[in-house]
Amino acid sequence: MALADGIGVATDPFFSHVADPSTAGVWALPYLFLYALQIYFDFSGYTDMARGLGLLFGFRWPRNFDQPYLARSIRDFWRRWHITLSLFLRDYLYVPLGGGRRGDLRIAANLMITMLLGGLWHGASWSFMVWGGFHGAYLMLHRWWRTTALSARLADLSGVGRWIWQTCAWLLTLHAVVLAWAFFRLTNWHESIACLRKCLSFVPDRMFAGGALEPTLLALLATAGALSLLEHRFKPRLARADGGHGLQGIPPLLQGAAWGVAITLLLAGVLLAPAGEAPAFIYFQF
Question: Any idea which residues carry the catalytic annotation?
Answer without folding.
Answer: 122
